[in-house]
Task: structure prediction
Amino acid sequence: MKHLFEYYNEVFPAHWDEPALTDYNGTTEYTFGSLAEQIARLGLYFAALGIRPGDKVALCGRNCANWGAAYLAIAAYGGVIVSILQDFTSDDIQNLVNHSDTRLLIVGPYVWNNCPQDAATIAGKMPQLKAVISMTDFNVLYQRAGERRVNNTGDISRLFDEKYPNGFRKQDVHYRTDNLDDLLLINYTSGSTGSPKGVMLTYRSLSGNLLAGHTYLPNKPGWKLVSMLPLAHMFGQLAEFLFPLSGGCHIYFLTKTPTPTLLMKAFAEVHPYMIVTVPLVIEKICKRSVFPITNKRMMKTLWHAPFGIGPIIRRKVRKKLLEAFGGGLKYFIVGGAAVNPDVEKLLLDIHFPFVVGYGMTECGPLIGGCYVRDFVARSAGHSLPGNEVRIDSENPQTAVGEILVRGDNVMVGYYKNEEGTKAAFTEDGWLKTGDLGLLDEKGNIYIKGRNKNMILSSTGQNIYPEEIEDKLNNMDGVAESVVVEREGKLVALVFPDQQGEINFRQPLAELMRENLQKLNNLLPKYSQVTKVELQEKEFEKTPKKSIKRFLYR
Result:
């Protein structure tokens, strides 16, 4: 297997003066050469701050070029990256910093502005933390008492000049590649509820994912891409950063919330070769712009005409969709959920270059994928190089069972969570995905249901309803609750507490409105609940007294 840094050892010198990472509508831009130099500078910085190889270094901030530079610098230095979603609450971030034994925290301004900033409070809440530095300019924001004081612009420049008196050159790029089984990354899939699940991924896992990318989605130096999914999540981290960069591509980071207007503007200007997204993006475009035309009676008749007008119409629709995404699209990758069947059929009819993949954080994240030309409707690809997929049932082709995975991509476990790690694997070492599915005779994976309750937001973030329910169930007037997704929004179904201490001076509906406001103050923006619906009857339970969630939508 080719180590992920083998790609960078080749690509960086070969494309030294070409653009690598750019903040869209921003001021920060790295060529491959300046990125390599920044990685070297940050390595000296880490050492000066007392960070040792093997120490945990956390990244928490919006997508940006400096996020990418810091990520590669930590890995090249031999540190362990801890990626934390910047939308977590301040308390959750502090909890994960402590749980991961993080020694250095690199934060964006949004995170820093919502965290305690006085030294005494930081030292009290995160005592093992040596320092906090800014993701904007890498200057020190906090250093623990007793640590050696470090100045980024002065001290590090002097150390850099001493080590590289002739400047940083192509021949200075030689990243370590003999550590495939060392821990590279701890990726947290949730906040603070219960035992945090910090997925431990090695260089082997990420390298296996890159192998899959280069096998099925080959790219070329100079091709461009817009990074819009959260880099703290494995889907965005691999598909919109590590993989395209390893092929010499130029990545534009959206440093602001990816609204539809901003996305369309960026696509039109960048002309990305690949878009990686959740189904909602393509579904909205088709339902708003394509279906009103193709669903007309006459158009339905002409659409399937084998000769003449039929192919012409389909080509025009294809061209229109490609232009909507910038005109240079070669791959449209969908993950996280199934595509609407009508939308999928349309895309296949017009030979749109799309494919549905399958994965989870615990596999860094890829499990299933395929060539665009080989994609089979309603499937999620097949197992990738170095991995195996099987169905835990008597007949994988006809009897639905849990999807199990083993191979290079699979995590080594959850950090400091032996119980969770043990529960995640079968006795013979297969990872239990929690998803239900089938395999056809060619190995294509068909997901038939979720054994888990995770909800995928429209912007690609994982939402765990139990975390929201745990907070809501502790509020006045709430006996129990179920959080569901409706048309891309979260709704809390609540069975009221008929015996608890309810403030009867205010109507129950008003109390729930107050609860909703309190609840959303405790939640990141992407998991905000839009409304509370009161239930007249208690939720139906299993014999084990668990709510039958599948009954509630």
